Amino acid sequence: MQIGFNAPTAGPLSAVEPLTRLVTGAEALGYDYATLSDHVVIPTDIQAKYPYSATGEFPAGSRVERHEQLIEVAFLAAKTTRLGLVTSVMVVPHRPAVLTAKMLATIDVLSGGRLILGIGAGWLKEEFEAIGAPDFAARGKVTDEYIDAFIELWTKDKPRFAGEYVKFDNIVLAPKPVQKPHPPIWVGGESGPALRRTARIGDAWYPIGTNPINPLDSLARFKTQVARLRKMTEQAGRDPKAMGLAFRCTALGEKVPPKAGDGERRLFSGKPKEIAADIKALGDMGVSHLDFGFGGSSAEAMLGEMQAFKKDVLALV
Hints:
There is one protein chain. By secondary structure, the protein is an alpha/beta fold. The chain has helices at 16-29, 69-79, 97-110, 125-131, 139-155, 192-201, 219-235, 272-285, 299-312, and strands at 2-6, 33-36, 84-87, 90-91, 115-120, 161-162, 167-168, 185-188, 204-206, 244-249, 287-292. The chain has one domain: Alpha-Beta Barrel (TIM Barrel). Strands 1-2-3-5-8-9-10-11 form an eight-stranded parallel β-barrel, surrounded by five helices. The protein has a two-stranded antiparallel sheet with strand order 6-7. Helix 2 links the parallel strand 2 and strand 3 (84-87). The mean pLDDT is 97.
């Protein structure tokens, strides 16, 4: 199993010196990949409901200065040599389809094939409106069409596309991505539409366990949704055994409530031995990538948490 961590795109730790120290230090510690989140702007008046908090409120700590996701991915690619780079997740309708496909292909080439494209349809309506993205109500359809366009551009010598939101012909997009047929596509989200999108075009499902509407806070709940995904994948005419599984954990340890909403033990709660058992159980289910949000007010403090996690937890798996 590959283990990742969240690299800051916002706040003090996203400044050049601490960000560089963090990613190079994490690579030296043996972590496999970094994840980077995506917002272009943060509206000052948010009425949209944030999917990953019980109240639906966007975290106050997120309303700070932040980098553009893909430019930061390219920056980190230049600072590292081995570390995988995951868009976690890229809000697909935020950027024009052809331009985005070109940017992602360039990142994959210049990083030597280290890009993993985590994708989502987005949740922040006010941000869509502020940046002139396509109609928020159509974001699912736009996302599907853009991804189909990406794949056409990445895999065809003479790409052609005629959709409702994307049209192109008589063009060349080169160089193609290093990874073949294209960078892995991890589909984020826990809803029915997200699962259907994963089943249709995803290389892996990439949920977060803390969505209160679709919680994946216990092993039993996660197993149920994986079984649902595999059935949908088969119905889509694809091999369900080939569907990858990744998982994002935002909180762990004894500070996490010990019981999940279904009465079962909450994933990643408790002592290191229990967390290690969860990691092993997820690995036995087919989860190949697992990433964590580590804390710390400085790069050194965060690296300290990551080193302790490796020593206290990962050594037991």
